[in-house]
Amino acid sequence: MKQEDSPGTDPGKGGPRRPRRHDPARRTRVLDATLGVLVSDGAAGITHRKVAARADVPLGSVTYHFASLAELRAAAFARYVALRTEEFAAAFAEVRDRPGLLDALVAQVREATERRRSAVLGFELHLAALRDPGLRALTEEWTAASRAVLARFTGAVTASRLDALLEGLILRALLATTPEPEEETRAALSGVLGLPA
Asked: How big is the CA angle at 194 (ends 188 and 197), to the nearest 5 degrees?
């Protein structure tokens, strides 16, 4: 294991090496900063330098924890998926029936523009996974977790349809210059759920 925070001597200088500040949250801060860069600049815009500046850590700290940009990006996306999976499950924790499910789904679409950062990260992950097969397992894991939440109320087939429709509705909400009426969102989701619009 690397000893980033251990004091000792600097063989190049022959004198005592200044001890580094113990910062157990640094790796997480670097990942969160990477997610910030992903939102502002996209996957192609990530550099070690941008991440270090956003995380307020020395450049060497980023390369210490992540040997390559690909490793850094994958770890940041994995953190995003873990956080988003928890959020999604929590959003449906109080749902008891299909009308309640419909309300929770409509809220996911309506809140997408308010939680723009999170929604953009989701689509950045899907776009990156198109070019990087290594990320596809992560998108599949996330999709499976989302569908499992929905399947508690609908069964697997309908959950799969709802999940795909939800992603499409969220993307449309993010791109719209004017918000789509909630009634249209509700009607689209009601059709899949077999509920009256």
From this structure: 50
Q: How far apart are CA 74 and CA 66, in angstroms?
A: 10
The third-level CATH classification (topology) of the domain covering 21-193 is Tetracycline Repressor; domain 2 (1.10.357)
Instruction: Name the β-bridge partners of 17.
Output: 8
Q: What is the rounded CA–CA span in Å between residue 80 and residue 92?
A: 19
Give me the tens of pLDDT residue by residue for the chain, a chain 197 residues long. 444 443 444 444 454 544 455 677 899 999 999 999 999 999 989 999 999 999 999 999 899 999 999 999 999 999 999 999 999 999 999 999 999 999 999 999 999 888 899 999 999 999 999 999 999 999 999 999 999 999 999 999 999 999 999 999 999 999 999 988 999 999 999 999 999 86
Closest-CA residue to 62 (of 43, 41, 46) = 46
Going from N- to C-terminal start, the domains of the chain cover 21-193
Name which of 136, 127, 1 is nearest 64 in CA terms: 1
The DSSP code sequence of 114-155 is TTHHHHHHHHHHHHHHHH-GGGHHHHHHHHHHHHHHHHHHH-
